[in-house]
Amino acid sequence: MKYTFFATAGRGLEDLVAKELQEMGIKDAKALRGGARFTGSLEDGYRATLWSRMASTILLSLSSFKADSNEAVYNGVRRIPWDEHLSLETTFAISTTSTRANLNTHFVSLKAKDAIVDQFRKATQERPNVDVENPDLAIQIHIDKDLTTVYLDLGNPGLHKRGYRVLSTDAPIRETVAASILVRGGWPELAKQGAAFMDPMCGSGTFVIEAAMMAADIAPGLGRVDLGFDRWKKHDQKAFSGLLQEAQERRDKGLETLGPIHGTDVAGPAIAAAKRNAEAAGLAHHVHLERVPLMNVRPPAPTGLVATNPPYGHRFEEDAAAVHYELGEALINEFIGWKAAIITGSKELGRELGMRAIKTFNVDNGPLRCIQINFDIQPERIFHERR
Ligand SMILES: C[S@@+](CC[C@H](N)C(=O)[O-])C[C@H]1O[C@@H](n2cnc3c(N)ncnc32)[C@H](O)[C@@H]1O
Predict the structure, then answer these.
(1) 271 CA distance to ligand 1 centroid (A)?
(2) What is the number of the ligand 1 atom nearest to the C-alpha of 273?
(3) Which ligand 1 atom sits nearest the alpha carbon of residue 308?
(4) 130-152 confidence digits (pLDDT tens)
């Protein structure tokens, strides 16, 4: 059976997600606003939930219909044979998003819920329950103009929940965003050559873990605890088990050739959290995490990639500038020959690093609009007048 899927993506990540899906063998993946659409078997959809590092979730389309009122949405949702998807014991939740439409998304969700409940009641006099916090099945409705699409969310509660974030520190970066920064920083190509990786302000270790998973060919979804589809009536456990087994074999092989992956931070609790998270990711013996202040950081190899997320809190602009200056000093003094991908809050803070960028990208980091700045750390790219 051929399904239509939509891989949702953060703003600006649509092309990266489409390319990532194509590299997985999903040839017709096409970037659209908000994500990438693709068609394929259920196994293709599962593969995307297991291997996409940058998609927010993978939606499986159940039905699409024209609807310009809440009643029309109700009728369209009611036409879906829900007993093929859930039983009376299955809990569900519905959320709705819209673009270019006038319908109130909250009311649409309520109407859609009524449609499902009424369909079950009519057939059985009973109804399945709603669980907004932790549903067995998450249903997403998207309305674009007058076209309503009802999806099953295969990646609920979100593909960024890889299962390794046991402890957090201040302002951890979202896993999917960290992965996109590594991709744009050229890490997949460098990692294939066995290059070294360093995050000298690693906090809870997100970049370190994501970089190690990419380099060791570890599926980001391998450690996910909650799956969006294991209580779905059409779930194909055999297909999913096959994918899991393949991912385990690729991980075991990938870990054999992993290059040096290091994370350091000045704060003890940050390193404790990073170690705990690396352990949860099965990487405790494969990455090096140590409490070291920036000025004492030394590269683990002659070349590699630095990816980091220095503090850029808006309330402490001056402190943030000083930390950026210090990071620039550390990179210029010790990391000549390396590349760097740094996410920061503004161009002004980026200038404090003291090097000319080779490329910049806009990045949404939660509610903050940030920039990623890529550097080749070479003597000719340093602003000598500022040093
Ligand atoms: C925004 S957080 C990084 C969050 C991290 N990317 C994560 O996902 O958890 C910035 C980190 O920089 C560290 N830091 C600040 N000043 C530092 C310094 N001088 N040397 C080393 N680390 C420093 C902080 O302890 C904090 O963990």
Answers:
(1) 10
(2) 9
(3) 6
(4) 999 999 999 999 999 999 999 99
Judge if the beta carbon of residue 329 lies within 6 A of ligand 1.
Answer: no
For residue 210 and ligand 1, the question of a CB distance below 6 A is answered with no
- Which CATH number characterizes residue 94's domain? 3.30.2130.30
Atom of ligand 1 nearest to the CA of 170: 2
Q: How confident is the model at residue 169 (pLDDT cuts 50, 70, 90)?
A: confident
- 181 pocket-lining for ligand 1 (C-beta < 6 Å): no
Q: Show the CA angle centred on residue 384, arms to residues 383 and 386, nearest 5°.
A: 75
Coil, strand or helix at 5: strand
Which pair of structure tokens corresponds to residue 236?
Answer: 């194909």
| Residue pair 275/285 in contact by the 8 Å Cβ criterion | no
Question: 43, 88, 86: which is closest to 62 by C-alpha?
Answer: 86
What sign does the dihedral 289-323-182-29 (CA atoms) show? positive
Same structural domain, 41 and 72: yes
What CATH code is carried by the domain that includes residue 270? 3.40.50.150
